[in-house]
Design goal:
By secondary structure, the chain is mainly α. The termini are far apart.
């Protein structure tokens, strides 16, 4: 990308200067290599800071939703849904401006697709989420984990496990990766795979008591618990999160409290004329 090309150009200039001053091309090699590394590092850091600024602006839009009180009526519930859609749309639009930086630095595009895909996933828009997440970096295990969960929801259990296995290089140091991998295997009917994965995860993360408990439960054929992996767990299963369940309960209460309405705009029952 542009940052690398600029760094290469700078190193070639240093090489030429060393050659011209000393009269030997070898004399310019060391300054050229140092210049390549330093210039590329500075340019990459600048692009990274620009990308982080964009992500911070987008996150501000999403975080504003967390400060909204739960609805107490059907009208408030509708206003909250409208606000959510507005903030999500604004946040995604901000993230999309970052694609201009992909010409400057490697993996910027993949990071943005992962972020936008995660937003769609948290809204449980599975098809748009898949489209975005497929363009994320293959070593981004969270993105691959979300894709695996979509596969699981679509009963594509073998595809889900294959995807998790492929993401091992990026997630093997994270207990949550192994918990998700084992859970998908267990729920997909591959009990032996689930136990093998959990034991492998314990070896890679010996300090994780949560993984040890998970492996023990699988070995003894007991139901596995995911509470120890919350709140990170809910990025893969937003429909299991307390926030989602609370919102569903609030919406249900608001609907129960709302008056029944029939055509013509009358509440039922309505006063006789």
């Amino acid at each position: 990308m542009y940052n690398l090309l600029i760094a290469i150009g700078a190193s070639l200039i240093l090489l030429a200067v060393g050659w011209a001053v000393v009269g030997n091309v070898i004399a310019g090699i060391i300054p050229a290599l140092i210049g390549l590394g330093v210039v590329y590092f500075l340019l990459a850091r600048r692009t990274g800071q620009q990308l982080q600024a964009i992500m911070n602006l987008a996150m501000a839009e999403f975080q504003a939703l967390q400060e909204v009180a739960a609805p107490t009526s059907q009208a408030e519930a509708q206003r909250l849904r409208d606000l959510q859609l507005s903030k999500i749309k604004a946040g995604k639009a901000i993230l999309e401006t970052g694609f201009a930086l992909s010409k400057w630095q490697f993996l910027v595009k993949e990071q943005l697709h992962a972020q936008i895909g995660a937003i769609e996933y948290m809204q449980m828009n599975w098809a748009p989420a898949r489209e975005q997440l497929l363009q994320a970096w293959s070593r981004n295990w969270q993105a691959q984990g979300m894709l695996a969960c979509i596969d699981h929801r679509e009963k594509k259990h073998d595809e889900a496990l294959s995807r998790m296995e492929g993401a091992k290089g990026g997630g093997d140091k994270d207990p949550l990766y192994w918990a998700l991998y084992a859970w998908l295997a267990d729920k997909g009917g591959k009990k032996d795979v689930a136990l093998r994965v959990a034991n492998e995860g314990v070896k890679k993360n010996e300090g994780s008591t949560a993984l040890k408990a998970l492996a023990t439960a699988l070995a003894n054929k007991r139901p596995i618990s995911i509470e120890a992996f919350a709140p990170g767990w809910y990025q893969f299963f937003p429909d299991q999160s307390p926030q989602y369940l609370d919102a569903q309960s609030a919406n249900k209460r608001a609907q129960q409290q709302a008056p029944n309405v029939r055509r013509g705009g009358y509440t039922f029952p309505h006063p006789r004329r």
